[in-house]
Amino acid sequence: MDTDAQPTNVIDHAIGTTLSGLRKSRGMTARQLAANSEVSAAMISRIESGQVSPSISTLNALSSALDVPLISLFRETASAHADFTHVKQGEGLKSTRMIDEHSHDFINLAFHTRRDMQFEARMVTLVRQSAKPPRYVGHGVVFVYAIEGEAVYQYGKQEITLNAGDSLSLDAELSHGFVEIVTPEFVFLTVQAERR
Q1: Does the global pTM surpass 0.85?
Q2: What CATH class has 93-195?
Q3: What is the 3-state secondary structure (H, E, C) of 130-178?
Q4: Which of 61, 62, 89, 131 could form a disulfide with 102 if both were Cys (CB 3.0 to 4.6 A apart)?
Q5: What CATH number matches the domain at 8-77, 1.10.260.40, 2.30.30.140, 2.30.42.10, 2.60.40.10?
């Protein structure tokens, strides 16, 4: 017997609650959502109140109009379990990355994967060396917070100098990475998140 199974009416209410929350978070009325999705305002109202089981095509139209993945409408239907990671000061998985002649140390502080997203956080130490640090192109977003030292970060053709206390956030789709470590050592926190 599947203990995570939920009655249809519970799922309908969960989908409705999520739809209503997503719509309101975007400042949309039911009429605006109806116009953008080609789903009637009356149907949206019935879905949000949990009175109907919407078809996949209806949910797909609504998710497209809200610019969210279809799976987002099911987020409240998940089982009652969730994962978390607590890393105490000075702990974490210590690793070294080697790319060509370059190497740097980092500590994995968090790695979290859900059906709809992936999130990771690392504390990285770059030591000034003759080999250039790597460049990256990926998906999602990257956040960098400088903890100690000074370095130059390149995002596309833009160069940004980072000093302790500075932060940077960017779309990962454009080529990015450190191009110069100014001080003997540069320590930073990096957080990456992407939709799956």
Answers
A1: no
A2: mainly beta
A3: CCCCCCECCCCEEEEEEEECEEEEEECCEEEEEECCCEEEEECCCCEEE
A4: 131
A5: 1.10.260.40
